[in-house]
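Friendly challenge for the regulars: who can give me the structure tokens for this chain first? No prize, just bragging rights.
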Amino acid sequence: MVAIRTYGGSVEGYIREIQEAKAAGIDGFALNLGAWRDANYRTDMASLFEAAKREGSGFKLFLSPDMCCALSRQDVVEMVRLYADHPAQLHKDGRVVVSGWGLTGDGAADSSSFWLSVRADLKTLGYEIFLIPHAWTPGFKHNPSDLEIQAAFDGWKNIFDGYFYFGGAMLPQRGGNDSLLDVGERYAMAAKATGMLYMGPVSPQYWGRKQTPGRRYYEYAGGEGLENQWRALIEQKTSWVEMVTWNDFDEATYLSPVDDVNKHWPYLDVGQNGYYHSHAGLLALNAYFIDWFHRGSAAAPTSNVDRVFAAYRTQPKYGKATNDARGIVASQHGDVQDTLYVTTLAKSEAELRVITGGVETKVPVPAGLHHERIPFLVGTQRFELWRNGKQVAQVQGPSVVDSDVLYNFIYATVAAP
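First reply, four minutes later:
Bragging rights claimed.
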């Protein structure tokens, strides 16, 4: 999200973010741009591309214009042209990769006509693009039928080279009207049948902090939701994966491991340090799945380390807030429980010990990847892995509180070691 300056917007700050992403196995950033005439966007884009160049590891960038905010055709053409020849720009089959989000732009009746015009304008300037945007089927349905999806792809196939399914606010499980996995599979099949490259989504969670009314929360179940998403994409032999998102803090989808964005950049209307919990724990767990995806194997990698990961809310689902003008988190989807979602990666059989609110629970865990759900209590949260009477991994996370100034359904996440 180019609008968000996680480490203040300096070239050095962007280099730090690139290095954090590279350490987890991420290959590049899709740069979401909701505006272009705003000078801040131009400055930040220049800094991002300069950071990728200076960092020097081959980390790639590509533009993803966001049609949320009245970008014009000329805006999109200009931003693509400006960076098309930059060494950090991603190319596919010799063409400039361009993505995007949303249905329309520039008053176009549908996404097809808009992107057809963009492609033609850029070709006139000497640039061929590899176009892989997210576009909505008619009616903006989040769960369209197979026929609706195929009809949309029939219209897109002569304009798009690939399709990006954004996913977004749904549940990472099979079955039901909100199944991210079922809908994604239908999009993947339609893309394959139409000869398009498919780019699937992975998200750590979703909570629309600023939405009114409702403030939608979808239960992703920590590492369980991540495994469900990655397994589905690996089984589909998905070509590309976009992790949604790196730094969209106000929808809680971020995977940036920043300790707290408010420490580096006073962020929007939350002045409370510690509100944006670190997602370093889920990024570290994603590194395991990214490695699996890169290997191209259906079988999960074996573990030669002992690690513990945890994700959980720091407020009960019916907790209280003393001064939150946006109201309660009324729109809760999925099996929302007051639960610690704990994932272990173990070299061999071990014992997981979780201390929540002073109460200890011991659970035997097998070798490899394993998930546990343990109800949380208000107070300190600690996670340990033991084998043969010896502690092999341990980490403590933020405390759970029953009341705070604001409602906060952003996961706190930790990883050890």
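The chain has two domains: 11-295, 307-416. The mean pLDDT is 94. Your move, everyone else.
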